[in-house]
Specification:
globular; 20% helix; 17 strands; 44% strand; Alpha-D-Glucose-1,6-Bisphosphate, Chain A, domain 4; alpha+beta; ADP-ribosylation fold; ten-stranded antiparallel β-sheet; 5 helices; three-stranded antiparallel β-sheet; 256 residues
Length: 256
Amino acid sequence: MELIYHLAEPQHWATAETIGRYEQSTKGVPLAAADFVHAADADQWPTVRQRFYSDYEQDLFLLAIDPRRLDAEVKREVGDPETGEQFPHIYGPIDVDAVQTVHTLHPTHDLPHDDAKTASRSAVVIPNDVGTVWETLIDWQRAGRWLPGVNTITADGPTAVGTRLTYLTTDGAFVSTVTAVDRGSLLQIRSERDDITATHSFHLGRAFSEGRTATVLTLVAEVDGTASEAALAQARADVGSADRRLPELLRGALTD
């Protein structure tokens, strides 16, 4: 069974370690005032972090929970009435022994993007320092190790704003342009095809996991353009489906 996740404030986790169970439902709401503890799947917690903790100026703990070790029942229920998206809800306290890993996410927790254009937001904690992750991210010659369907990427110069990247893929070739670079922090790449613009923003942040320095890598994929709304909606669905696992794939390339 896959792990589920919960974002915890440090003081609440400190209490849990003392009493053996975690009893906070969500930010500002104890379990005693709610029916369940809010949790999320691997591809959902980055959105929770952005929406509810963007102004949180302290460290956050990301609890990786094994549902099989919980005494409480886990139900999948609608968490966003507007989209109908379901989230795991834990109907009782979280046993400390059910938490497999506690990742520390350092601020900032804010990733300003237009939610109306967002196709996906996904993240992973990588057990390598930011410098190592950054160098792997911009190693275009080896990008095929973790980018599905990509054989090679050729850059027309050093990675900088305006650098053109030519992708040779199983479906043909296409060109993207680097539109923002903040070394060790942000890499943004934009591609245009059939009146549709796709922008991929890789955000790197400092983390701490299992006694060592780590990196939280977040990918926000956005789709916009002059195509019809139906075409844009389909493109967002396609991009979201294809790109949601990219941070995890990069993690695999670094830890294999």
